[in-house]
């Protein structure tokens, strides 16, 4: 949001410039609003200068108002400008808290190095509160959040911040430490802790009673917006590593599974991060998962479902076109008389709950459900298998 006068600093000016751009792109060039990406820009709020104190609020309010007026327009933000001037450890905190506030206001994407943010849940309450006070300029007599934030991180570095977390982890009791490894996505020392746990507990108990508790917390943090997707995937990878390490210690009867699902990214779509996360979550919760991979035609999906005697079919896709393919796949199931045999769970960025639960529900002759994320997919599997059994 820059015009002839320079970078806008108030929410009103930011939105005004954005709308000039939107009007020109849509009116003159015929570009759809959904194809427009607006960066509302931010400045550092860490100089101590009076005129910069409200820059964080201005950016958040501009994002919120722009999304209210133009919900289809995509918003982005060069995030780390907000913390320029602080030491590296304090910057990680402020970047993370500011990103969380911007996402709540409607931010769609951010330009940020993944090593420069952490999930909000990894900071203590005073740190988060101080960062929020700085962002929203909540000063009072005897208290300046900028000065307090600098004091909290005096002498700290990004490396020492991580080292401090490692020391905290090492001090925890074994069971809590394993759970925390899942939540924090921390692999270092994982195998040694698993070996220690195996001395007193069966492998399956470790998975069900400790590791899955950690993934449950991850799901809650993700659902509440306190953990971003890259960190969820990091936690899921640690969970996968832990389960693979414990698997040789499990009795074969433990792997019978609660039910079977065939998962596939639909024809023409190569995106599978979300699907693979679903695989990990369901597998680690006792389900047999047949993951077919990407670009799967409906014939391959149905063949696998019949071969593996699947209880449920799961289809995913990121592209808008994939929503059409999913509809065609459901029609194919109807035509083959298989709808009653296979409840279907659908997920992916281009889908909406309304489209699945209204339009596709009306079309499909069996059960079709929408999963917003992997954890909702798990809840749906539990419900669908419960009904079938």
Descriptive notes:
- It is a single chain.
- With 389 residues, the protein is α/β, with parallel strands linked by helices.
- It folds into three domains: 2-153, Dihydropteroate synthase-like (TIM Barrel, Alpha-Beta Barrel), CATH 3.20.20; 172-249, Methyltransferase, Methionine Synthase (B12-binding Domains), Chain A, domain 1; 259-388, Rossmann fold (3-Layer(aba) Sandwich).
- The chain is 52% helix and 8% strand.
- The protein starts with a strand and ends with a helix.
Structure, briefly:
The protein is an alpha/beta fold and 389 residues long.
Keywords:
Methyltransferase, Methionine Synthase (B12-binding Domains), Chain A, domain 1, 8% strand, two-stranded antiparallel ribbon, Rossmann fold, alpha/beta, TIM Barrel, 389 residues
What's the number of extended β-strand segments? Answer: 9
Secondary-structure element sequence?
EEHEHEHHHHHHHHEHEHEHEHEH
From the helix content, strand content and strand pairing, which structural class follows?
alpha/beta
Strand content: 5-15%
CATH architecture of the largest domain: Alpha-Beta Barrel
Mean pLDDT: 91
Strand order of the largest sheet: 6-5-7-8-9
How is the CATH topology of the largest domain named?
TIM Barrel
Termini distance?
57 Å
Supply the CATH class of the largest domain.
Alpha Beta
Shape: flat
Give the helix proportion (percent range). 40-55%
Oligomer: single chain
Q: Low-confidence parts, pLDDT < 50 over ≥5 residues? A: none
What name goes with the CATH superfamily of the largest domain?
Dihydropteroate synthase-like
The biggest beta sheet reads: 5 strands, parallel
Number of domains: 3
Rg, nearest Å: 24 Å
């Amino acid at each position: 949001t820059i015009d002839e006068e320079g970078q806008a600093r108030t929410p009103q000016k930011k939105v005004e410039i954005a709308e000039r751009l939107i009007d020109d792109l849509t009116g003159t060039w015929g570009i759809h609003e959904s194809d427009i990406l607006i960066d509302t820009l931010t400045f550092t709020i860490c100089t101590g200068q009076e005129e910069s104190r409200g820059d964080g609020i201005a950016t958040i309010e501009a994002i919120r108002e722009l999304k209210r007026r133009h919900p289809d327009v995509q918003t982005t933000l060069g995030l780390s400008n907000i913390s320029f001037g602080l030491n590296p450890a304090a910057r990680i905190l402020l970047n993370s808290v500011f990103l969380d506030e911007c996402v709540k206001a409607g931010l769609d994407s951010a330009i940020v190095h993944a090593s420069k943010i952490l999930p909000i849940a990894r900071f203590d309450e005073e740190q988060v509160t101080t960062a929020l006070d700085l962002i929203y300029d909540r000063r009072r007599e005897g208290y300046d959040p900028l000065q307090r934030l600098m004091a909290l991180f005096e002498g700290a570095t990004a490396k020492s911040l991580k080292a401090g977390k490692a020391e905290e982890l090492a001090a925890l009791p074994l069971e809590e430490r394993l759970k925390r490894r899942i939540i924090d996505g921390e692999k270092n020392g994982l195998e040694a802790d698993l070996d220690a746990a195996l001395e007193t507990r069966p492998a399956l108990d470790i998975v069900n009673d400790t590791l899955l508790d950690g993934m449950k917390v991850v799901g809650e943090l993700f659902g509440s917006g306190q953990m971003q997707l890259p960190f969820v995937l990091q936690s899921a990878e640690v969970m996968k590593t832990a389960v693979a390490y414990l698997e040789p210690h499990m009795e074969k009867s433990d792997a019978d599974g609660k039910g079977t699902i065939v998962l596939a990214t639909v024809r023409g779509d190569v995106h599978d991060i979300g699907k693979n996360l679903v695989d990990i979550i369901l597998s680690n919760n006792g389900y047999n998962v047949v993951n077919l991979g990407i670009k799967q035609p409906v014939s391959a999906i149905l063949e696998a479902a019949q071969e593996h005697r699947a209880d449920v079919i799961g289809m995913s896709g990121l592209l808008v076109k994939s929503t059409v393919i999913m509809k065609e796949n459901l029609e194919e199931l109807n035509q083959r008389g298989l709808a009653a045999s296979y409840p279907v769970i659908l997920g992916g960025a281009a889908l909406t709950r309304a489209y699945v639960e209204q339009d596709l529900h009306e079309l499909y002759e069996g059960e079709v459900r929408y999963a917003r994320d992997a954890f909702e997919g798990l809840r749906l599997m539990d419900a669908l298998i419960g009904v079938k059994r």
